[in-house]
Amino acid sequence: MSSSVKVVVTGAAGQIAYSLIPRLVDGRTFGDKKVDLALVEIPQVVDKLEGLVMELEDSYFPNMGQVTYTDNFAEASKDADWFLLVGSIPRGIVYNGKKIEERSDLLSINGGIFVDQGKAIGSYGKDDAKILVVGNPANTNAFIGKNAANNDNQLWMAMTMLDSNRAKSIISKKTNTNIDDINNMIIWGNHSPTMYPDAENVLISNELGSSVINDMEWTESSFIPKVQQRGKAVIDARGASSATSAAKAAIDTVMACESPTLSGNCFSAAIASDGSYDVPEGLICGYPLITLEDGTIEIKRDISLSDFAKSKFKISIDELLSEKEAVKHLMQ
Ligand code: NAD
Ligand code: LMR
């Protein structure tokens, strides 16, 4: 084995984590690196993680390193390379007598989690740590966490890979193309019903979606709303929010960050805007990203947006701005 990596996973006793954690040590996600896991839960359920650790041991993953579990996030954070911040409440449940309908309704419940976690990551995580926020509302939670961490060397991301995978699946069926031949499926903006899945710049067997799909009526009235509302559709059908597909998307994001992106390609995640594509600086916004040879992750800046795309993207940017306003009491 070449080296090791330490990964912190919060919400480790939850639905997503149960699919996610075994994949972190399966020898694929981090190649031949030894993977140390620090699993975090709230005090009420942390003891349940003993059972998960037993299962991991019984699975005998050759790449599994040290596995610990705790309700002390700061302690888990020490020298961690990766943070997968899943721990938070999903929508679709009844909370304080009210059904949580939209991801943004979770802001007041989940947002606070990311202040303390952000501070601990900034202080104890590795200086080049990567943080993927999965817990909703993911973009603004990452915004809160990044602000609290106050460490610009660390990379904060919010997950939009699930939306990208969903969009690829729909386009694969529409164009009768193998899903592996669909690349650059960009999700612009917020992981919310305002996100803009870009069917014009997607590459379908190396050709732009704008020429292969060539069906604006389908794009606007079927494709975009279906991607935007897929999370709700899964909740309605399953009675719980998407879990195994979310775990797969988190793994896809880690893998996209761990190896250089092929020339001309990109992947989807939300990171802090540097002003690219006229997004106000600092907002955690869904962008096309590339991983460079040295492991740096950058926004791909040569994508051309149509007027239609710009108008859709703006709706999502405006929503991110209003979420930022709603959490200003959590900024220090
Ligand atoms: P779940 O309820 O099954 O599990 C969440 C776990 O988080 C619970 O075990 C809970 O005890 C734990 N938790 C809560 N607060 C915590 C804290 N402060 N520290 C550590 N652990 C904590 O939920 P789930 O289905 O695993 O979903 C988790 C989150 O992921 C939800 O917010 C959901 O909306 C979100 N999600 C995001 C995406 C995405 O694409 N970004 C996709 C699916 C789900
Ligand atoms: C999803 O997209 O499946 C998740 O964000 C869960 C949700 O609340 O929709």
Total number of helical segments? 11
Query: Roughly what fraction of the amino acids lie in strands?
Result: 15-25%
Biggest beta sheet summary = 9 strands, mixed
Order of helices and strands: EHEHEHEEEHHEHEHEEEEEHHHEEEH
Structural class: alpha/beta
Multimerization state: single chain
Mean pLDDT reading: 96
User: For this structure, what is the CATH class of the largest domain?
Assistant: Alpha Beta
What is the share of helical residues?
Answer: 25-40%
Shape: globular
Q: How would you describe this protein?
A:
The protein has 332 residues and is an alpha/beta fold. The protein has two domains: 4-158, Rossmann fold, CATH 3.40.50; 161-328, L-2-Hydroxyisocaproate Dehydrogenase, Chain A, domain 2 (Alpha-Beta Complex). 39% of the residues lie in helices and 19% in strands. The protein is built from eleven helices and 16 strands. The strands form four sheets. Strands 3-2-1-4-7-8-14-15-16 form a nine-stranded mixed sheet. Strands 9-12-13 form a three-stranded antiparallel sheet. Strands 5-6 form a two-stranded antiparallel sheet. Strand 1 (4-10), helix 1 and strand 2 form a beta-alpha-beta unit. Helix 1 (15-24) runs parallel beside helix 10. The radius of gyration is 19 Å and the shape is globular. The N and C termini lie far apart (42 Å). The structure holds nicotinamide-adenine-dinucleotide (NAD) and (2S)-2-hydroxybutanedioic acid. The site of (2S)-2-hydroxybutanedioic acid has 10 residues, from helix 9.
